[in-house]
Hints:
Layout: E1 3-10, H1 16-29, E2 35-42, E3 48-50, H2 63-69, E4 71-77, E5 83-87, E6 97-101, E7 103-106, H3 117-125, H4 134-141, H5 143-152, E8 160-164, H6 165-170, H7 172-180, E9 187-191, E10 201-203, H8 206-217, E11 222-227, E12 232-241, E13 247-254, H9 263-267, E14 289-290, H10 297-313, E15 318-327, E16 333-339, H11 347-351, H12 357-376
Amino acid sequence: MKTRIAVLFGGRSVEHEVSIITGLQVYAALDRHKYEPIPLYISKEGLFYTGGHMGEIESYRDMKACLQKATQVVPVPGENHTVDLLRQPPKRFGNPVVATFDAALPAVHGTNVEDGVLSGFLETLNVPYAGCDVLSSALGMDKYQMKAVLRQAGIPVLDAVSFTGREYALYPDAALERAERVGPYPLIVKPVNLGSSVGVSRAGDRPELEQAIDEALRYSGRVLVERAVPHLREINCAVLGDYETAEASVCEEPVGSDEILSYQDKYLSGSKKTGTAAGGKSGMSSLQRRLPAEIPDELAERVQELSVRTFRALNCLGVSRIDFLNDRESGELWVNEINTIPGSLAFYLWEASGVPFAEMLERMLDAAFKRQRERAALTFTYDTNLLSGVELGGAKGSKR
């Protein structure tokens, strides 16, 4: 019997469309001899939809027609750690269960999904799911908190400051002075909890810093400011596995049209590739890159070592991509960020490492079932008679 896998994508995020691409890449790559994939789309309103046509990219060119043809569902716990998708609104007669799945494979990006929100929902459903848990997802999305954890683990990261939009509105001069103490201009300003380079700007002076902060605050309630790395080279590396089996892929060097890789560089630059082994032509697989990266062996080994250490320090599972900043002249290397659900699931890095996309997904699902078995051995309930004698003073209906 095939294992039924729900591939979740979309969500209330500015990276919604990128997630659709990743989700459909995953849906197409799952081994049909072992798995029965179920496309499960999350709309920008947070509603769930499924249907056979939702595994085809052409369906999303007319979203209104796509959703009219789809079936709206709500996931609820089923039997033996499965999840039933119930038709919404329910019909008066007939079976309300549209489909049932045994495990979930999230292919989502950005806030309200990748940041631990969807992981928490899947935890509540008590279903195995591939990828990071709530804490590691949340830490991976919050760039400032991620730096704090990695610094504690002895992993090199750039110094940074973070402040809220309210702090900036009330005390703008103090916030700007804090930002300028990070280092000399130019500075890099980011929303603290977004990916895909959304809202990221480079500021060469205070007026540009103010503009960059305003731009970042359009997408997040908090911003992060750090110094720009001179003689910058970006290097990426993926890690696959769990706390026991984590291993690093080959390294890549993205090639952007600017000093900061933009959303356009990553997703809208067409399908031309520089030495990639990727089979797809959309999503992060279409980014121009040097793969493998043209860097010294010693640097590649250092990147791979730090990638695995970062993955383990944040207690990740599945596949993550760790992005590095390298000063070409000084040789200094810093972890920039981790992508706990990277664009295209970084399958192109694993194909270049000799691991086909389908095998990578199978290893992610194996890790998901392993985690579920380990958690099943833990105690989550504690039998007591605590409530038998409780009275809520002042509450309606309480005894006097």
